[in-house]
Amino acid sequence: MPYKESILITRFPFLPGKRKAAMQRMKPALVLLAMFLLILPVVVYADQLEDANAAYEKKDYAKALELFRPLADQGNVNAQFWTGVMYSQGQGAPQDYAEAAKWYRKAADQGDALAQFSLGEMYYQGQGVTQDRNEATKLYRKAADHGDGYACFLIAKAYSEGRIIPKDYTEAAQWSICGAQIGIAEAQYNLGMLFTNGQGVTKNI
Description:
Layout: H1 3-11, H2 19-57, H3 61-73, H4 77-89, H5 97-109, H6 113-125, H7 133-145, H8 149-161, H9 169-182, H10 185-197
């Protein structure tokens, strides 16, 4: 092999004839690097979320919001929900229902039951959004579908009263059962009253 070519191959192993062998040697390292780059953001986010939760528990609301907000901006559903909570309660920032509703909506769109329920409450009360109790009921239903027991009770109550949606005791009983099974006392009481009165279920005193 000519001296010049030998020097080039030694210094630049990707020259023809050496490329395949060099790539095979590099593959494990490249796989490990790719895995590290994928895992690193998750670890960083988890640590930051843990720090934010710790600050909130210590009632250091300014610090908690400072940590939650960047994660919320990046789409972390837990951070979005807690950012909504903090704006709703005026924790770490002036109370701002419109801002709270915005963050609840972002988390709700990702399927977070607590955010769906909280946004439903804002529609029910007309806080930060135009009051719309039909929209509130839709959000309660979504929350209930994702396992929120208190949302089950509120839907049952709506069907029992017939003020927001047409009265339907059968539906009221089904949603009361949903909440009662999760352990919501109000749902258990509502279900008991339905059995007592024979509304939507067979009367059983």
